[in-house]
Design brief:
Layout lengths: L6 E4 L8 E4 L2 E4 L4 E4 L9 E8 L4 E3 L5 E10 L4 E9 L5 E7 L8 E4 L4
Parallel strand pairs: 1-10
Antiparallel strand pairs: 2-3, 3-4, 5-6, 5-7, 7-10, 8-9
């Protein structure tokens, strides 16, 4: 297993899929599947299901070919901060804007299930 740069939870006992965390990416298996979590961050929480299919390949999402659930990745909703733009409106009030905070992999959760 990789050094955790992400919250890791194990759902049950047994051998888990190999993974590696690098920056905002998770690599599953022997570099078989890579998911860039930063590109999947949204204004609401995102959950990704990682499954093994009938051909022993890894897929994102549960579909008719999925036969084994191996992991789930939870990406929390994007966070924002309110910042002063340094400008004022016509009444002299400061104008603020909402800016997204940088993506933080350490706030994501990787849940692992035992391999069958």
């Amino acid at each position: 297993m990789a050094a955790a740069k992400i919250i890791v939870a194990e759902k049950n006992e047994g051998e888990k899929i190999a993974y590696e965390v690098s920056g905002s990416k998770i690599f599953f298996g022997d570099d078989e599947l890579m998911v860039n979590l930063k590109t999947r961050e949204r204004d609401e929480e995102v959950t990704l299901d990682i499954c093994k299919d009938t051909q022993d390949g890894l897929t994102v999402g549960v579909n008719t070919e999925a036969r084994e659930y191996v992991a789930q990745v939870t990406i929390p909703a994007r966070e924002y901060e309110i910042v002063d733009t340094g400008q004022e409106d016509e009444d002299g009030n400061p104008i603020t804007e909402r800016r997204a905070l940088p993506f933080d992999m350490k706030k994501c959760t990787l849940t692992l299930w035992a391999l069958i």
